Known about the structure:
There is one protein chain. By secondary structure, this protein is mostly helical. The protein has helices spanning 3-18, 29-38, 44-56, 62-67, 70-76, 83-101, 105-108, 113-121, 128-138, 148-156, 166-176, 181-198, 215-223. It binds a DNA duplex through residues 35-37, 39-47, 49-50, 78-86, 89, 124-130, 133, 145, 147-150, 163, 188, 191-192, 195-196, 200-202.
Amino acid sequence: MNPKLRLCRIYSSLDAHFGDLHWWPGETPFEIIVGAILTQNTAWRNVETAIGRLKNRRIMNPRSMRLLPEQELASIIRPAGFFNVKAARLKAFLRFLHENYGDSLERMFAVDTASLRSALLAVHGIGPETADSILLYAGGRPAFVVDAYTKRILSRHGLISSTADYPYIQRLFMASLPKEIPIYKQYHALIVETGKAFCRKTPICSACPLGKGDPVRVARALAS
DNA sequence: GACCAGGCACATC
DNA sequence: GATGTGCATGGT
């Protein structure tokens, strides 16, 4: 089966299994951006705690967070881990937003997708996955998000080599799928939920909706 | 107590 | 250009 068709079949299997996941969890675009930075290499559970602390202190908005000293911000987001690094990264984004768009996400998202992606990548602490998460889930732009689970699942299913890089994997998805925002959002969400439930470093492939009925794939996954 | 989690920047070779 | 390392909390 060709890779494009397999990617579409994988989507169908996972969508049937999990249903509509309504991603990203977050009430506002700003909260989504903050979550995207806080969840870097971190379990979402810990990010939720940190987000709750930011909301309780009424600083889940660009201006309040920008005016808060970095050390205080770091202590508030402590439960999310890497708190000193992440406080600096949040501050770098807030500085970018303030200096270029006067703290307005609306103005920031008025920029065309390619230019905005480049600008975000130039912000210290925003790499490809974080930039694409911001574009897709906060801005509603067609940017497919590739994460560690995406690489792991595709690699175990023989669709990519284990050394495939971010741009290659992103192009593979974007060339295979209809260019529809809801599909991009749902597909990445499905991959993350699959990863969390079935495709950790020690996979639980027997129950995975992608593993069922394919002993070759299951064997390969278990061996990896 | 070891292992892992929805990355990224930086150093080193 | 590839590979290794620091960053840190909290759940399993």
